[in-house]
Amino acid sequence: PPAPFETKYEKNLYDGEVAYVDFVLGKLFNYMKKNNIFDRTLTIFTGDHGESLGQHNEMTHGYFAYNTTLWIPLIISIPGVNKGQVKKIVGHIDIFPTVCDVLRIKKPSFLQGISLLPVIKGKKLPKRTFYFESLYPYYSRGWAPLRGFIYGMEKFIDSPIPELYNLDEDFDELKSLAEEKKLDGYRKRLARIINEQSNPENIKARQRIDRESLEKLRSLGYISSPQVSRKESFGPEDDVKVLLP
């Protein structure tokens, strides 16, 4: 974090980052209140991903698909709507449909998320399946990719060494249940999810990325180097859990 938070939180830089964001948001909200726009502004606070601070031997994000990096803050402040809390799982894909609903804009038919406005107002949230993936190990190092889904509070991670968790009882994902259950059904379900989301009929438009944007994404680590040799099949020796130092 920048000064003075770097010094104040030198023993816990993550808390320093949080304190800095809190400080900056405070300045923004004070400005909005002084200019009488705070009470008529839709405000959404979220993050693009979480961060591992040593959990599962990861000191970053991008390699694993554990809750430390999948779970993010999501706070939505809507003028005229009472405070509340949604306890079931929602995702980034729900933000745009929610904004459309709040602004009374017609939602495109191809959206995969749902509006959270009815839920915020007290309606029931439908039980849904959430797909996730971590492909950075594959594209950057040629290791096995990670793919999986969450349904209710059950989470399946498919890899050469698969994992299965009951998030109600084990949110920190310390004890995998993969050895206790047959995983064929989970793998078939995951294949269906990937097939549905990859169906060209569900993809309405593709955009070409210009060279400058491509280089910017590569410099940020979101696009891998093309020199890495990637395999088509993987064994336990290719699993991120085995290979990550």
From TrEMBL:
Any one Pfam family match given in the protein's UniProt record, by short name: Sulfatase
Domain Sulfatase N-terminal: 11-103
Gene3D superfamilies: Alkaline Phosphatase, subunit A
Annotated InterPro entries: Alkaline_phosphatase_core_sf, GAG_Ulvan_Degrading_Sulfatases, Sulfatase_N
Lineage: unclassified sequences, metagenomes, ecological metagenomes
Name of this protein: Sulfatase N-terminal domain-containing protein
